[in-house]
Design a protein that fits this description.
The chain is α+β, with helices and mostly antiparallel strands. A nine-stranded antiparallel beta sheet has the order 4-3-2-1-6-7-8-9-5. 20% of the residues lie in helices and 29% in strands. It has three helices and nine strands, in the order αββββαβαββββ. 23% of the residues are buried.
Length: 189
Amino acid sequence: MNEAVKTSIYAGVAVVVALVAVVARPKQEPPRPQHLVGKMLFEKFETPEDATSLEIVKYDEELSELHTFRVARDNTTGAWTIPSHGGYPADAETQMRDAATSFIDLQVLGLASELPSEHKLFGVVEPNKDQLKAGDEGVGMLVTVEDKKGNDLANLIIGSKVKGTEDQYFVRIPKQDVVYAVKIELSKF
């Protein structure tokens, strides 16, 4: 055999092997949000005692202003204070436990949307001062629970009430497009 025939055979075998590899490779589907339906939204957040701060950011549509409220446990003294109000002392042990427990048991009831263009419709636009303009609508309430190291245990934008329900709301995790329906008691915040 001459060199041209040998080269052609090797090239042909290489093409066949490449095709087999492409056809036989395992298919990987990206995780779909509907797989979360029926599961806990913050599975890694297991005990309310881990929560050492709670921050709530609300947007006043009439005044086009953001209002922030933060309560935190001082790491050295263990006392609860309100840093957003000059470090004012707070009796927040029970309220923090109740608010944290709301996130621990937060189960996804349904998927509402995967489209960022529908965030306004469900009231889950993030209350971010750098992105909001006067007159913006559909801005939700951002609730963040952190541990003593400042890591997020739960971070959620709570939006509009689900029609026909008493305690179900549309929610979205910041930096994600998916909007879920959950059962949550807002009075704990």
